[in-house]
Amino acid sequence: MAAIIRRDGVRSFVLFTVGGMGLALPLDSVLEILRPPALVPIPLGPPSLEGLARRRGAVLPVIGLRRVLGLAGAGAGEGGAGDGETKAARLLILRHNGQPVGLLVDRVSGLSAVDEGRIADSATAPDPSIDADLLAGAILAGDGAAGDGALILDPGPLIERQFADLGRGPAGSADFSAAPQPKTVAAVSQDEEQLVVLTVAEQEFALPVAAVREVVPVPETVIRVPRARPHLLGMMTLRDALLPLVGLRELFGLDAALDATADRGLGKVAVLRTAEGLVGVAVEDVREILRVPRERIDPVPPLMAREAEFEDMDGIARLDGGARLIPVLSAERLFRHGAGSGVGVGIHAQGREGEAAVATEAEAERAEAFVVFRLAGAEYGLPVAAVQEVLRQPDAVTPLPNAPDFVSGVTTLRGGVLPLVALRRMLRLPDGRESGGDRSRVVVIAAGAARAGLLVDGMAGIVRIPDGAIGPAPVVSQAQHRLIRRIGALESAAERRMILLMDPAELLDMDQLADLLATV
Q1: Which of 48, 315, 345, 520 could form a disulfide linkage to 244, CB 3.0–4.6 angstroms apart?
Q2: HSE of 452 in the Cβ direction (CA atoms, 13 Å)?
Q3: What's the pLDDT at 347?
Q4: What Gene3D superfamilies is this protein classified in (predicted)?
Q5: Is residue 121 part of a domain?
Q6: How far is CA 464 from CA 243, 272, 347, 357, in A?
Q7: Which of the listed residues 364, 389, 412 is the one where a domain comes to its end?
Q8: Is the pLDDT score of 277 beyond 70?
């Protein structure tokens, strides 16, 4: 039975309701009571798990008490309650085995000091619909805040039961912080170039992955610079550092008549490393990450190479048998293209802000780069080193007999066979966009000699996450513990993101995964 604060024959409780039922928790078991923050769904958890929340630098699992108690409707955080109840919903933060856990309730009634004479044990609780093992007793009807009575929950057994799966295997008991480091992944071959493919004015361009620090959404606010050239769209902030924002469309003169403030269809900013510091380049989309053999990247034809307008090109990638040509840009020479026109980007134009950008770049060296993709409303990340390329979904997929249910089939990639993994199915998520659509992609990962293509809903970009922003993922099941071991939490004035970081080596261990997922 949970400990209860006692003073002179009086016990203290937090009183709340779930589905109209009056419930209570011992006051000393509740660390905080707050409005529910935005929750990030995490797959392969128990049915009662609403998602993950971030509080005071820690990531904690949130359990919906409606689900635990089998009451009608989803948790208040998912709109299962009415609008009034949703606004009144609260998150109770408890500590279990040294780790914070959130309980989502419909409404908090208040705090109450209850005479011991009004406390009954769980065996005589008035509501038989709740398992007596989850109860520490009952407050009998009387006067005061708990006048109608309430069932006293025992938080220990209640939380342990939600994560009972953890006690059946090597993941151990419900320790929400265990997070081994990911296994070694395959390196990029010296005979290949890893390229990020960007689209501008419906044309494709590429930049070496090594030159791209990260790819982020276009910020809501861009500070315009007076009397600036059309391609210098202004200044933007990236995690509290200022950097210039250049429009690649304007820089190349692909649509010079279009005003930079109009709806340009821009969706991404590629943050480039240059000798002068960080520069943001606005593009319409980031479509793919490709590993291209160097022999398929031709030099710029001599007639064009003599022209100053083409000095920002390192070469031209020939794909699909020459049917697809992609100019490969040089991050260092890219801004010389408009230097005579006063591009003026970099630390020389930024002054004190430029020094801050250089400092930020130095700090960024203590960070990891991830390819981030979307799946069922959440963001997932894989180490850039583990991602060979990101492709459009193939037109033809060959079924693979006797394969695990999450393997959609196989396709060919440069003469080799590539198994395709339906990531939604693997993670037990509802069917959705990964089966098709213009933005659906195949993320090709490798670890050692093994490789596979992951079917995802779409790309979010490349993100560098500081080491200090990466922490262990709460362990909510053995299968989740194998696949999602860390979480990247980015918080600034401009963004709040929680990225679920996957282990590529574990994703490729399909035989063991199939056995483990059979228990979910």
Answers
A1: 345
A2: 21
A3: 36
A4: CheA-289, Domain 4, SH3 Domains
A5: yes
A6: 16, 12, 21, 15
A7: 364
A8: yes
**In this structure, are 329 and 404 located in the same domain?**
no
Residues 289 and 429 placed together within one structural domain of the fold: no
Q: How far apart are CA 286 and CA 323, in angstroms?
A: 20
Residue 302's identity, in one-letter code, is P
Question: Are 91 and 197 found together in one domain?
Answer: no
Confidence grade of residue 122 (pLDDT, cut at 50, 70, 90): low
pLDDT tens-place string over residues 36-65: 998 999 999 999 999 999 887 788 999 999
Question: Between β-strands 58-64 and 99-105, what pairing exists: parallel, antiparallel or unpaired?
Answer: parallel
Give the DSSP letter of residue 130. S
| Residue 397 near residue 442 (C-beta atoms within 8 A) | no
339 and 404 co-located in one domain: no
- In the block, tokens 């799946």 appear at 375
Q: What percent of the chain has pLDDT over 70?
A: 78
Contacts of 11 (CB under 8 A, 6+ apart): 4, 5, 26, 113, 114, 116, 119
469 pLDDT above the threshold of 50 = yes
Distance CA 449, CA 40 (A): 33
Residue 504 is encoded by which pair of tokens?
A: 């590529």
Tokens standing for residue 44? 């392969």
- Rounded to whole angstroms, the Cα distance separating 22 from 28 reads 19
Distance of CA 408 to the CA centre of its chain: 24
Q: Quick one: 331 and 455 in the same domain?
A: no
Pairing of strands 10-18, 107-115: antiparallel
Residue 360 and residue 386 in one domain: no
pLDDT in tens, 163-210: 876 655 444 445 555 445 555 455 556 788 889 999 888 899 999 988
CATH number at residue 121: 2.40.50.180
**Per the domain annotation, does 421 fall within a domain?**
yes
Quickly list DSSP for 110-125: EEEEEEGGGEE-GGG-
- Of 345, 364, 383, the last residue of a domain is 364
Contact 488, 499 (CB under 8 A): yes
What is the average pLDDT score of the chain?
80
| Mean pLDDT of all residues in 69-96 | 68
Half-sphere exposure of 211 (CA within 13 A, CB side): 23
Taking CA 434 as the corner, what is the angle to CA 320 and CA 41, rounded to the nearest 5 degrees?
140
Range with the poorest average pLDDT among 185-189, 317-321, 331-335, 510-514: 185-189
Structural domain for 513, as ranges: 367-517
Q: Looking at the whole model, is its pTM more than 0.85?
A: no
- Do 400 and 382 belong together in one domain? yes
pLDDT computed for residue 449 by the predictor = 79
341 lies in a domain?
A: yes
* Residue 260 in domain: yes
What distances in angstroms separate CA 294 from CA 159, 314, 327, 509, one per listed residue? 55, 12, 14, 30
- How many domains does one find in the chain? 3
- Same domain for 350 and 401, yes or no, is no
Residue 351: pLDDT band (50, 70, 90) is very low
